[in-house]
Input
Amino acid sequence: MRQAIQALGWATYIFWIILIFFTVTAVYSAFQLKLGFRQPEVSASDGTLRASFPFSIANGGLYDISNLNISTQVKDNLGSHISDSSTYVQLIPRGSNVSITHGMSINISQMTTENLSYLLFNDSDFDVSFALKLDYANAVPFRVSTNFTMPWGAPLSNLTIDSIAVSPYNTDFKATVSVSFENHSPFSLDGTMRLDLVNGTGGLLGSGTAIIPPHGGNIPLEIIVSDPVNIEEARLYFTTSVFSYGPVVISLV
Amino acid sequence: MLPRIVKASIKAILYFVFLYILPKFLLSQVSELAPELFALYGQYLNVFVGVVIFFVVASELTSGTIFQHAFNIGKAIILIIFFVLALNGGIVTFDLNLGEMGINIWADLRIYLAMLITIDLLGLAKSILQAINFLSEKAEQQLPTPKPTQ
Output
């Protein structure tokens, strides 16, 4: 019995020493982790907004970091999903310095879907959920998460028909329409806009096409119509290298 | 009785220094990083030190009796319950506020908790065996001494 008691006593002391040693070295190693952040890079091309976040992790501690996973999820302020991205690093050994670039991308063609099309015309804030997961010392799973907002500028902000003037033109009439908008997005819009003038039953009265100014501005159109009295709606169709959308219906009565 | 009180006092002071003063000093060096976190675990440290010192003193004052082993068994059980509650079953989460940004931190310390519980179970087993050994020695002392037959 005494030998068993002594053995249990020694086992307890040894386990306590191991546990305290692990705790102290783990805390010490955690404070030897150095994070270095470089300037984020944002670019917009081919209809995709890309943000790259380069950073480095110097693991000066005594334990490896494994299964490092960085994920970001972008949603609009109504909770609709916009994009997901993740970066995975299998192992950051002790004593090593690893450079990582986490990329986020938002494809503007997604804004043409029904529940996100309002983002083409309205500035907003995106909700970005950021999560970093890793296994520390191959024994302790660890996760840091946060949320922040990212501003979004609409490419067709303040889209309005400023004026419409009708004047005689040969045997018909000429409707001079002035359309204006502001491009708050980082994209340059190169493409065309088609404007259809329709009556109350949706019948087409006249149509015109104009080139869209890349950074927004005023678009004058001259449209030949036969029956200007019954013009009730303007329907706009946008075709650009970044997105295609339409009709945007603007009432003229 | 006086030597027991002196021994209990010395043990209490030593435990207080190594379990409270030293960790508090070390924690104070790093507490600026997450004051809310270290404030919470500072309270847990106070409770832990209070429980350990109480049982160490009680065990020392009742040394040589069955109550010494009862206190050791009680200490092991209470520390198991304390560690499970303090570490929230091994899943620790807390929220930090860095300016306007809120950060949630989650850690799975179940392996660490299992190690703590294992150590306490070993201590519990040792205390139970010591109690059994004490009772059996007491019983042997009370047995009549057999005399050789002529």
Q: What stands out?
A: Chain B has one domain: 2-142. Chain B is about 75% helix and 10% strand.
